């Protein structure tokens, strides 16, 4: 079926072994019981593993010539089925493009398939670090993060991936009639930002880095959700404290947090923070004043480098839900954008309205110049109908939901559409609709 | 008159030459026509120049024994007459305590009399820099900044001096019955923060530092105030752009800005920014999209190190007014805290209401987790009565005024009182009221 395509690839490594191809066609879509039903069993026909940009170009040309679908793949940790090929074709495993090209003036140029932990370690040697990373840093690639993610640890300071200045440039192989590698600068990179690889194959990225900091993992426990939330929001707003992460999980979640469940009182709400050494004293004093008790303190880097331990960021962002799912598959989650005003009252109100089905989980970050929080509530799944009711309940309270139980770019956004600019980029760079087909719902092939 | 005091000082350097003593009794109070009337001619009786903490302790003991008033002095750049002795006594020149004691884990320990430019240069050698500094960095001391200032360049990211985490510790010589040197940690440092030296003589400070960045001075010109303000606010809110300063001055001020008046069209509003190299491309693109034209670009550090040039931060914060005063003494200024909501509409409204008397000047920074701006409008001074009317006009529009035409701590604040904690610290550390008498209005000696 993909034989004509494969025959054009010369010595580029390819895999047709069905077991491997199936494995490399899956990501973390099973996170969602709805996506599980929709995507289970879907897979590509083959896997190609380009070694450099010339290979990626050859793959793109072969795909155009043979009308073969291409779905790029990094670490395969997307949790909306971003990397699952809906209509077969080839998975393009980008992970061999794994080198840092240069670092200067606080900017890194990197190949898109580089693993993010490896990248962070390499940056560290030069006194830098990633500005932000998903909680999947150990397995995700930088290209997969830009193409499939949105933000994470570090967003409290630097905002999300879509904020101006967080992606400086990208080199992209297009699927035009004559595929070519082009450089996108600044705002032009919106063409590939969170576009699920539907507009091009990213080969290189240029990103600003942050100065290396010896972050300290802290966890504080609080007898009530309200106390924890007040502290978390206050800490997040302290510009004077150098911080990378402020995350809140309610008492129900503690039971799923291996590093903390023996050090914090059962049922207590937990605030996890990554704080620079210079901010430790102030943070502890602030927690004290808010009635919190220190439950854990370790160096993030040491925990990350020790295979027997985990850094606390692996209890935050989308990993919070994963910790629950590891033990109990009956849970799922939502993504909620809380408004910056009356945030804490809304947090408490939602907890009151969904006492048995929802565990509160918040990630603090700025939105339009103001500290607010993203909610990633962990929800007991009973039925699709009930999940829809819960989404409606959040929206009735003015809390926007980005539905994580859908696999198209449009349905995952709060506005349910792609921007006109992104739609135009799709027509320009992939007019034949060969890239990750079906993920940009509104793209109807001519 | 201070003979008994001086005779107790041993070999501590002292000065009684009236010309020098008078010069060292003045600061920048003349900035305000009202303070000029009130403070002109006031001076100490002598000057003492302690070389180390032991000397400071000896000075404190001698003052207690002889009931001599002590007014600490750093660079003498305070602009509310903070350093002017109202009732004679001795000026304590702290500038010989000028060494960095250590730098580690992103924290510096420094003697309080160190010049801030010298401090920043020394930090730079170790890869660090000051988190924030007043526009008087070249002449101010770190102790004078903490005791008499409030924030400045860098506050856009780190907040003001009063924000938790920006002052980690302070060593302070008290004027108790038995003067001693004590260490204040964290929130305890509120005892000396912006207290005008009324609660103790600061000998050492412990402060978090920022990673050294090769800041770039940029100035953009805009045909209208509204366009400039919209750009400045948007830029200030970009967490993805590494920035240290965003300052706006309206078209009337450009004429007073030597480095810019030949490079920007006359009458255009100016936005000055300090941006990391990694953020230049995004900042220029953003300015472009807002209709701004690049009028100036240079390295902050190079301009700072070149005696023939000035860094653009010397056109911002309180220096904006100074640039005007250098040419025209009929101007003065106010300090206004704009609310974070409807900021731009209020900025335009105030410009509309005071077309001939007021030039708009804004400094962007976060307030309670939200980007807002401090206004330092330059005002044509006609009479005290009219100045009061203008203050009332701002306050009617919900814009809080911190009056810079008063010399007491209370009257300079927006609430016109000192906190109960600071009042208690005063009673504890200086029960005899010997430190900078008259500056804490509410302290009535027993
Ligand atoms: C437990 C868990 C926690 C998570 N936490 C976060 C988080 O904190 N923040 C966050 O933003 N996301 C998070 N995610 C989602 C996911 O976006 C991130 O894990 C990560 O960014 C994906 O990187 P990846 O290399 O695994 O990408 P993949 O899953 O391999 O790919 C993601 C998408 O990008 C496309 N793609 C990959 N490489 C390229 C390329 N070179 N060119 C073009 N397109 C490409 C793929 O086609 C796919 O559409 C989480 C997911 C899980 C399962
Ligand atoms: C042109 C101009 C621009 C300015 N810009 C800013 C600005 O951007 N931000 C800002 O916050 N301020 C600003 N200021 C005000 C002033 O606070 C700062 O210039 C600076 O912080 C003062 O430092 P200094 O060493 O000159 O202090 P001084 O003027 O010498 O003293 C200030 C106060 O601190 C006390 N003091 C000094 N040293 C000690 C000590 N070791 N122990 C106890 N008390 C002490 C003095 O008694 C006095 O009350 C500006 C002033 C001018 C004239």
What attributes characterize this protein structure?
homodimer, 446 residues, alpha+beta, Uridine Diphospho-n-acetylenolpyruvylglucosamine Reductase, domain 2, Uridine Diphospho-n-acetylenolpyruvylglucosamine Reductase, domain 3, Vanillyl-alcohol Oxidase, Chain A, domain 3, 3 domains, 6-stranded antiparallel beta sheet, 21 strands, binds flavin-adenine dinucleotide, FAD-binding oxidoreductase (chains A, B), FAD-bd_PCMH-like_sf (chains A, B), FAD binding (chains A, B)
Number of structural units classed as domains of chain A = 3
Bulk shape of chain A:
globular
Largest interface: A-B, 43 and 43 residues
CATH topology name of the largest domain in chain A: Vanillyl-alcohol Oxidase, Chain A, domain 3
The percentage of residues in β strands of chain A lies in: 15-25%
Strand order of the largest sheet of chain A: 14-11-13-12-18-19-16-21
CATH hierarchy, class of the largest domain in chain A: Alpha Beta
Work out the helicity level of chain A: 25-40%
Q: What's this entry about, in short?
A:
The first copy, chain A, is an alpha+beta fold and 446 residues long. Chain A has helices spanning 3-7, 18-23, 33-39, 53-66, 116-124, 142-148, 155-158, 225-236, 251-254, 280-289, 300-305, 318-325, 343-353, 384-396, 409-412, 420-429, and strands at residues 14-15, 46-48, 70-73, 90-93, 100-104, 107-111, 128-130, 169-173, 181-185, 201-211, 216-222, 243-249, 269-275, 293-299, 331-333, 336-338, 358-359, 361-367, 370-375, 378-380, 400-401.
């Amino acid at each position: 079926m993909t034989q004509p395509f494969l025959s054009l690839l010369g010595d580029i490594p390819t895999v047709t072994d069905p077991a491997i191809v199936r494995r490399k066609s899956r990501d973390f879509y099973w996170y969602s019981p709805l996506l599980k039903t929709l995507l289970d069993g879907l897979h590509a026909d083959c896997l190609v593993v380009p070694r450099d940009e010339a290979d990626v170009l050859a793959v793109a040309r072969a795909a155009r010539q043979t009308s073969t679908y291409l779905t790029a793949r990094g670490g395969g940790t997307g949790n909306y089925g971003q990397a699952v090929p809906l209509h077969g074709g080839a998975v393009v495993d980008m992970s061999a493009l794994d080198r840092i090209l240069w670092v200067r003036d606080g900017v890194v140029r990197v190949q898109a398939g580089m693993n993010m932990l490896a990248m962070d370690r390499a940056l560290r040697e030069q006194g830098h670090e990633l500005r932000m990373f998903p909680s999947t840093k150990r397995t995700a690639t930088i290209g997969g993060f830009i193409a499939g993610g949105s933000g994470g640890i570090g967003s409290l300071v630097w905002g999300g991936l879509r904020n101006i200045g967080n992606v400086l440039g990208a080199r992209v192989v297009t699927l035009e009639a004559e595929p070519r590698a082009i450089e996108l600068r600044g705002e032009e990179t919106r063409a590939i930002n969170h576009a699920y690889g539907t507009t091009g194959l990213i080969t290189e990225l240029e990103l600003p880095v942050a100065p290396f900091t010896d972050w300290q993992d802290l966890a504080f426990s609080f007898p009530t959700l309200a106390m924890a939330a007040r502290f978390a929001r206050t800490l997040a707003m302290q510009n004077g404290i150098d911080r990378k992460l402020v995350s809140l999980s309610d008492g129900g979640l503690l039971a799923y947090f291996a590093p903390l469940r023996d050090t914090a009182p059962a049922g207590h709400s937990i605030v996890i923070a990554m704080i620079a050494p210079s901010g430790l004293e102030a943070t502890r004093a602030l927690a004290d004043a808010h009635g919190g008790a220190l439950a854990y303190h370790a160096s993030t880097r040491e925990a990350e480098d020790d295979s027997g331990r985990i850094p606390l960021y692996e209890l935050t962002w989308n990993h919070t839900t994963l910790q629950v799912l590891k033990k109990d598959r009956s849970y799922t989650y939502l993504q909620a954008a809380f408004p910056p005003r009356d945030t804490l009252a809304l947090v408490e109100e939602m907890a009151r309205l969904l006492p048995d089905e929802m565990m509160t989980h918040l990630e603090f970050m700025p939105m339009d110049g103001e500290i607010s929080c993203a909610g990633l509530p962990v929800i007991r799944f009973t039925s699709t109908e009930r999940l829809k009711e819960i989404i409606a309940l959040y929206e009735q309270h003015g809390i926007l939901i980005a539905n994580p139980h859908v696999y198209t770019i449009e349905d995952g956004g709060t506005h349910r559409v792609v921007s006109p600019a992104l739609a135009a980029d799709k027509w320009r760079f992939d007019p034949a609709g060969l890239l990750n087909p079906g993920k940009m719902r509104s793209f109807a092939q001519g």
